[in-house]
Design goal:
binds 2-deoxy-2-amino glucitol-6-phosphate, Glutamine Phosphoribosylpyrophosphate, subunit 1, domain 1, alpha/beta, 3 domains, 615 residues
Length: 615
């Protein structure tokens, strides 16, 4: 969703801002803008709201940028309050035109603040909630406060979530920023100071990064900075460990980020497993969880909360916890969990799963669970993200930055870490024999190689996409671990190819949805070998009898399954609960191929944002 970048002390401030905005694009946006502090002490601003190509249009509008500007701020906006128009795009200016401000988040009491400000003579030029902030800073400055003090003094009056950055025309080398809930990082590179809402935006520019904390105010200049709390007391900022470099946020020779990220999946899973699993003994090491064996042994129930692909990974995690740790487990869509009277207390371990660590639905579910007394851990790919900070413990997936909106490598890394967590719980409760734990750990250690093999079948997937990709309706069916896998396959097809794709438990079709099956319907059936293969085969027969075309996801060389299907997507055989780790690969690829054939942008599907920070 929205993104912030700021720079001070650069030879080419505009270049740094545009480079940062480009790396924020993946979050999803509908308008963009920059403001530079020109050497003559004037603020120069350009904004664009050309749908989906704002950045290109913004760049086109920049030839008249003032030469020699060393500082400025930039923003990508995903509209919430007010349509995606130029007037609503950030940066916003105060009445004097001396201050420019960018904001991520939502100011809940903006109407009341705006009414007050209008009464005091301020003129508003946008419909956004954000604009109140710049007028409030303007007033505080007029009352004699310096820029940082001005920002500090207004924050008590602001309700909501925000990351905000301000520049002033008369202080060319100063960036001032603050945050509450929405992330903000900052750091220094060769002679420059930068800040951003997302690490990816400042990779390659800053050498060491720090994270700003809630209700902290930053005054940042080239070579120095100060951070204070709202009372003006100095605060030591938290250094941020970044495990990847600029290359990780570039396409690196691939046509798109999605291809690159699919290709990175064996590494993402191998890195996520590294040091956490001993394939010889089945021993697990999740020290970073900060929950000891005794605490884990006392857990009576596990509840996963998540959205989208993270929810699908959670459904597999739930099955693994039940099967291996013999603990009652549930997985629930976070936006539903939050508003249900969920019965969770200290005996429950809540696991919030989120690639970004920022999804508002999951964040609020996590908070609600903790409010009700549950112990809560976060599984996330983003170090120091909100959910990582707010939970009692955190397990990081180590997939590196995922830029494509459709989750691929992060989804597989989530599956891997959740299965390790299930094994860890099983061992803490002595629920598995060492021999069985060892077998499972050995199989998990072999998953990166299985993913590599599954990636090698791209030609088979492309052929299936050629034959059936033009269909208008798809039904993805599965049982047990095959069901979340089917749900993930259907989600990928919907979000990338904009095709109706329904995921259903294979055994449930006969209770209603089978009425929809007719010649031309394409059924993608999860039919790898496992205890329920016979049942799935019977369900396939039911669909076939009604004229459906069957694409079966099956084990390599499984002729019996091939004989009951029109086409197969083959994957290396794995133990049943590990199957989604390899079998998600052809389903991702299938959605990718169909989307490309239909001419869609696979990295930035319509209407979607990578990081969903609204409810
Ligand atoms: C997956 O391809 C999606 N784009 C989406 O469903 C995503 O998984 C969901 O929004 C959750 O995001 P999170 O993992 O960052 O919380």
């Amino acid at each position: 969703m929205c993104g912030i970048i700021g720079v001070a002390g650069a030879h080419d401030a505009l270049g740094v801002l545009l480079g940062g905005l480009e790396r924020l694009e993946y979050r999803g946006y509908d308008s963009a803008g920059v403001a530079l502090v020109a050497p003559d002490g004037v603020l120069w601003r350009r904004r664009s709201a050309e749908r989906a190509t704002s950045l290109v249009h913004l760049e086109a509008a920049l030839p008249d940028a003032p030469a020699g500007s060393t500082s400025g701020i930039g923003h990508t906006r995903w509209a919430t309050h007010g349509a995606p128009t130029v007037a609503n795009a950030h940066p916003h200016l105060d009445c004097t035109g001396h201050l420019a401000l960018v904001h991520n988040g939502i100011i809940e009491n903006h109407r009341a603040l705006m009414a007050e400000l209008v009464e005091r003579g301020h003129a508003f030029t946008s419909e956004t909630d954000s604009e109140v902030l710049v007028h409030l800073v303007e007033e505080a400055r007029a009352a004699g406060a310096d820029l940082a003090e001005a920002l500090r003094t207004i924050l008590d009056r602001v309700h909501g979530d925000f990351a905000v950055a301000v520049v002033a025309a008369d202080q060319p080398d100063l960036l001032v920023a603050a945050r509450r809930t929405s992330p903000l990082v900052f750091g220094h590179g060769a002679g420059v100071a930068v800040l951003a809402s997302d690490v990816a935006a400042v990779l390659g520019t800053a050498e060491a990064l720090h994270a700003l904390g809630d209700d902290e105010v930053l005054a940042l200049r080239p070579g120095r900075f100060s951070v204070t709390d709202l009372a003006g007391r100095p605060v030591a900022p938290r250094p941020l460990e970044v495990r990847y470099g600029l290359e990780a946020a570039r396409k690196g020779g691939f046509d798109d980020f999605m291809s690159k990220e699919m290709a990175e999946q064996p590494h993402a899973v191998a890195d996520t497993l590294l040091g956490r699993l001993d394939p010889a003994t089945g021993a697990t090491d999740l020290e970073e969880l900060a929950l000891g064996r005794d605490q884990l042994a006392g857990v009576e129930r596990v509840v996963f909360v998540a959205c989208g692909s993270s929810y699908h990974a959670s459904l597999v995690g739930r099955q693994a916890v039940e099967a291996w740790a013999h603990l009652p487990a549930e997985a629930e869509v976070a936006s539903e969990f939050r508003y249900r009277d969920a019965v969770v207390g200290p005996e429950v371990l809540v696991v919030a799963v989120s690639q970004s660590g920022e999804s508002a639905d999951t964040l609020h579910a996590l908070r609600e669970a903790r409010r009700r007394g549950a112990r809560a851990i976060t599984v996330t790919n983003v170090v120091d993200s909100l959910m990582a900070r707010e939970a009692d413990g955190v397990l990081y997936t180590r997939a590196g930055p995922e830029i494509g909106v459709a989750s691929t490598k992060c989804h597989l890394a989530q599956l891997a870490i959740l299965e390790v967590l299930a094994l860890h719980l099983a061992r803490a409760r002595d629920a598995l024999s060492p021999a069985t734990a060892g077998e499972l750990a050995g199989a998990l250690a072999g998953v990166p190689a299985a993913i590599e093999q599954a990636l090698g079948r791209a030609a088979q997937v492309a052929a299936v996409a050629d034959r059936f990709g033009g269909a208008e309706h798809f039904y993805f069916l599965g049982r047990r671990a095959g069901l979340p896998l089917a749900m993930e396959g259907a989600l990928k097809l919907k979000e990338l190819a904009y095709v109706r794709a329904e995921a259903y438990p294979a055994g449930e079709m006969k209770h209603g949805p089978i009425a929809l099956i007719e010649p031309g319907s394409v059924v993608v059936a999860m039919a790898t070998r496992g205890p329920l293969w016979d049942k799935v085969a019977a369900n396939i027969a039911e669909m076939r009898a009604r004229g459906a075309t069957i694409v079966a996801v099956c084990d390599d060389g499984d002729e019996e399954t091939a004989a009951i299907a029109d086409a197969v997507l083959e994957v290396p055989p794995l133990p049943e609960l590990l199957v989604p780790l390899a079998a998600a690969v052809p389903l991702q690829r299938f959605a990718y191929e169909v989307a490309r054939r239909r001419g869609h942008d696979v990295d930035r599907p319509r209407n979607l944002a990578k990081v969903v920070t609204v409810e």
